[in-house]
Amino acid sequence: MSLEKADAIVIRQVDFSESSRVLTFFSREFGKFAALAKGAKRIRGPFDAALDLLSECRVVFIRKSSGTLNLLTEARLTSRFQPQQGGTKDGLSRLYTGYYIAELLCSLTEDFDPFPELFDLAKSVLSLLSSAETHPSTLVVHFEISLLQHIGLLPNLFECSVCGCPVEQNGKFAHWVSQGGLLCHSCRREEYAGTSVSAGSIEILRRLTESSPDLAARIRLTKEQTEECHKLAVSAITNVIGRKPATLRYLQM
Ligand SMILES: [Zn+2]
After folding, report:
1. Which CATH code fits 1-80?
2. pLDDT tens digits along 18-55
3. What is the pTM of this model?
4. Beta strands in 64-163 (DSSP E)
5. 86 or 69, which is more confident
6. Which of 87, 154, 181, 227 has CB 3.0 to 4.6 Å from 161, enough for a Cys bridge?
């Protein structure tokens, strides 16, 4: 049992009793962790508005030995996720994009596995979603691809997984989901059942993995490019977590 401090984003809330909630945080210092917040549902509770979904806050918690729920003792709001108040016309859709990002962090990371870069990435993406000048769909694809890259599950975007031929400008490739790779036209087999992806979209994905969220947010993709890139990322994510993310159907790409 120890007292810990962290900068954290609220990624999940579950009611525990009439007045308490169990919160899941994604923190800079510890990665993901859950904690019981006693009195969190009371209007003038001890945590105020610091614990809204996707709020970033400074928290203090008692870390229990494995198997027991950690206990939140303090939470101070750093910044709130308010995409509908940033002068955006599509605020609701941006809000759902935030929920999707929270679900991906919840499903694809492990408890107490620190990932400071991923925390910084999530923080920038949430802040960019509140700005009217950014394209939410590019931010979604960028986040999906970067998250897969951080956890080591991004498909190899440079060559065919079987013969090793490089991905060239005009080729048509297939995403080999179970092996986390690509297949060229001549190696593609019926039984792999991968979806097609154009070399142009693979090139975009490669560029996005090298871009900061700031830069990515200003890239406008065509509808076809967005669909192909998003589809590839969602197939890889679904393969890892064993189901489609629940918030996926609220996304407007
Ligand atoms: Zn090949």
Report:
1. 2.40.50.140
2. 999 999 999 999 999 999 999 888 877 778 778 999 99
3. 0.92
4. 70-79
5. 69
6. 181
Structure tokens that stand for 224 in this block: 């076809």
**Given the DSSP bridges, would you call strands 31-37 and 70-79 parallel, antiparallel or unpaired?**
parallel
Segments making up each domain of the chain, as ranges = 1-80, 83-253
| Ligand 1 center to 187 CA (angstroms) | 4
Sign of CA pseudo-dihedral 164, 166, 172, 176? positive
CA 222 from centre of chain? 22
Cβ-contact 77, 55 below 8 angstroms = yes
Number of CB atoms found within 10 A of residue 205's CB: 24
Q: Which tens digits make up the pLDDT trace of 98-107? A: 999 999 999 9
- CATH code for the domain defined by 83-253: 1.20.1440.120
CA of 184 to the centre of ligand 1 (A): 4
Phi, psi (rounded to 5 degrees) for 46: -70, -15
List the alpha helices (DSSP H) in 110-220.
Answer: 116-129, 136-150, 199-210, 213-216
- Cβ atoms within 10 Å of 73's Cβ, excluding its own: 16
